[in-house]
Amino acid sequence: MKKIEHIGIAVKDLNRSIAIYEKLLNTDCYKTEQVASEFVNTAFFKTGENKVELLQATAPDSAIAKFIEKKGEGIHHIAFLVDDILAEMERLHREGFVLLNESPKKGADNKMVCFVHPKDTNGVLIEICQEIKWV
Protein backbone atom coordinates (compact mmCIF):
# COMPACT_ATOMS: atom_id res chain seq x y z
CA MET A 1 0.00 0.00 0.00
CA LYS A 2 1.41 3.33 -1.09
CA LYS A 3 -0.31 5.87 1.16
CA ILE A 4 -3.56 6.88 2.77
CA GLU A 5 -5.57 8.09 -0.22
CA HIS A 6 -8.53 9.49 1.69
CA ILE A 7 -10.61 9.30 4.82
CA GLY A 8 -14.34 8.76 4.23
CA ILE A 9 -16.79 10.53 6.54
CA ALA A 10 -20.48 9.63 6.62
CA VAL A 11 -22.77 12.69 6.80
CA LYS A 12 -26.51 13.28 6.85
CA ASP A 13 -26.55 16.54 4.89
CA LEU A 14 -23.90 16.86 2.18
CA ASN A 15 -24.42 20.56 1.44
CA ARG A 16 -24.26 21.52 5.12
CA SER A 17 -21.20 19.34 5.61
CA ILE A 18 -19.42 20.79 2.55
CA ALA A 19 -19.77 24.24 4.09
CA ILE A 20 -18.38 22.98 7.42
CA TYR A 21 -15.38 21.25 5.84
CA GLU A 22 -14.59 24.16 3.53
CA LYS A 23 -14.26 26.32 6.65
CA LEU A 24 -12.45 23.66 8.67
CA LEU A 25 -9.91 22.73 6.00
CA ASN A 26 -9.69 26.25 4.56
CA THR A 27 -10.14 24.92 1.04
CA ASP A 28 -12.97 24.48 -1.44
CA CYS A 29 -14.64 21.20 -2.25
CA TYR A 30 -13.03 20.28 -5.58
CA LYS A 31 -15.47 17.62 -6.72
CA THR A 32 -18.93 16.22 -6.03
CA GLU A 33 -20.06 12.97 -7.55
CA GLN A 34 -22.93 10.51 -7.35
CA VAL A 35 -22.04 6.83 -7.14
CA ALA A 36 -25.37 5.28 -8.08
CA SER A 37 -24.23 1.69 -7.50
CA GLU A 38 -23.47 2.53 -3.84
CA PHE A 39 -26.49 4.84 -3.34
CA VAL A 40 -24.26 7.68 -2.24
CA ASN A 41 -23.37 11.26 -3.09
CA THR A 42 -19.78 12.27 -2.40
CA ALA A 43 -17.77 15.45 -1.99
CA PHE A 44 -13.97 15.64 -2.01
CA PHE A 45 -11.44 17.96 -0.42
CA LYS A 46 -7.67 17.97 -0.81
CA THR A 47 -5.57 18.61 2.24
CA GLY A 48 -1.86 18.28 1.58
CA GLU A 49 -1.30 15.02 -0.29
CA ASN A 50 -4.40 13.42 1.20
CA LYS A 51 -8.12 13.78 0.64
CA VAL A 52 -11.28 13.81 2.70
CA GLU A 53 -14.42 12.29 1.20
CA LEU A 54 -17.86 13.14 2.56
CA LEU A 55 -20.54 10.52 1.89
CA GLN A 56 -24.30 11.09 2.00
CA ALA A 57 -26.78 8.25 1.49
CA THR A 58 -29.25 8.53 -1.38
CA ALA A 59 -31.36 5.55 -0.23
CA PRO A 60 -32.56 4.60 3.26
CA ASP A 61 -31.24 1.03 2.95
CA SER A 62 -27.77 1.99 1.66
CA ALA A 63 -24.59 1.13 3.56
CA ILE A 64 -24.05 4.79 4.53
CA ALA A 65 -27.63 5.20 5.79
CA LYS A 66 -27.29 2.03 7.88
CA PHE A 67 -23.92 3.19 9.21
CA ILE A 68 -25.34 6.57 10.30
CA GLU A 69 -28.40 4.91 11.85
CA LYS A 70 -26.18 2.56 13.88
CA LYS A 71 -23.18 4.78 14.71
CA GLY A 72 -24.11 8.35 13.78
CA GLU A 73 -22.17 10.65 11.52
CA GLY A 74 -18.41 10.23 11.53
CA ILE A 75 -15.45 8.39 10.08
CA HIS A 76 -16.71 5.60 7.85
CA HIS A 77 -13.52 4.26 6.26
CA ILE A 78 -9.85 4.80 5.56
CA ALA A 79 -8.72 4.28 1.97
CA PHE A 80 -5.25 3.22 0.90
CA LEU A 81 -3.89 3.74 -2.61
CA VAL A 82 -2.37 0.69 -4.31
CA ASP A 83 -0.62 0.20 -7.64
CA ASP A 84 -2.32 -3.12 -8.49
CA ILE A 85 -5.67 -3.69 -6.82
CA LEU A 86 -6.00 -7.28 -8.07
CA ALA A 87 -2.60 -8.25 -6.67
CA GLU A 88 -3.39 -6.50 -3.37
CA MET A 89 -6.75 -8.25 -3.12
CA GLU A 90 -5.03 -11.59 -3.72
CA ARG A 91 -2.39 -10.80 -1.07
CA LEU A 92 -4.98 -9.76 1.51
CA HIS A 93 -7.04 -12.88 0.82
CA ARG A 94 -3.93 -15.08 1.29
CA GLU A 95 -3.26 -13.28 4.57
CA GLY A 96 -6.73 -14.30 5.78
CA PHE A 97 -8.63 -11.02 5.43
CA VAL A 98 -12.28 -11.15 4.38
CA LEU A 99 -12.91 -8.94 1.35
CA LEU A 100 -16.37 -7.47 0.88
CA ASN A 101 -16.00 -7.60 -2.91
CA GLU A 102 -15.00 -10.58 -5.05
CA SER A 103 -13.68 -8.21 -7.69
CA PRO A 104 -12.90 -4.50 -7.76
CA LYS A 105 -15.78 -2.16 -8.50
CA LYS A 106 -16.01 1.37 -9.81
CA GLY A 107 -15.92 3.88 -6.98
CA ALA A 108 -15.81 7.65 -6.79
CA ASP A 109 -12.99 9.92 -7.94
CA ASN A 110 -11.90 7.71 -10.88
CA LYS A 111 -10.98 4.72 -8.71
CA MET A 112 -11.51 0.98 -8.68
CA VAL A 113 -12.18 -0.07 -5.09
CA CYS A 114 -12.47 -3.04 -2.77
CA PHE A 115 -13.31 -3.09 0.94
CA VAL A 116 -11.83 -5.22 3.72
CA HIS A 117 -14.30 -6.40 6.37
CA PRO A 118 -13.92 -4.38 9.58
CA LYS A 119 -14.09 -7.51 11.75
CA ASP A 120 -10.57 -8.31 10.50
CA THR A 121 -9.17 -4.80 11.05
CA ASN A 122 -10.09 -3.90 14.62
CA GLY A 123 -13.46 -2.46 13.62
CA VAL A 124 -12.12 -0.13 10.89
CA LEU A 125 -13.53 -0.43 7.37
CA ILE A 126 -10.54 -0.37 5.01
CA GLU A 127 -10.83 0.52 1.34
CA ILE A 128 -8.10 -0.24 -1.14
CA CYS A 129 -8.22 1.78 -4.32
CA GLN A 130 -6.42 2.08 -7.61
CA GLU A 131 -6.58 4.97 -10.05
CA ILE A 132 -8.35 3.97 -13.28
CA LYS A 133 -5.91 4.44 -16.13
CA TRP A 134 -7.51 5.36 -19.43
CA VAL A 135 -5.93 3.99 -22.58
From TrEMBL:
InterPro entries: Glyas_Bleomycin-R_OHBP_Dase, MeMalonyl-CoA_epimerase, MMCE/EMCE_epimerase, VOC_core
Pfam families, alphabetized: Glyoxalase_4
Alphabetical UniProt keywords: Metal-binding
Domain (VOC): residue spans on this chain: 3-131
Organism domain of life: Bacteria
Protein family according to the UniProt entry: Belongs to the methylmalonyl-CoA epimerase family.
NCBIfam families, alphabetized: metmalonyl_epim
Protein name, per record: Methylmalonyl-CoA epimerase
Taxonomic placement: Bacteria, Pseudomonadati, Bacteroidota, Sphingobacteriia, Sphingobacteriales
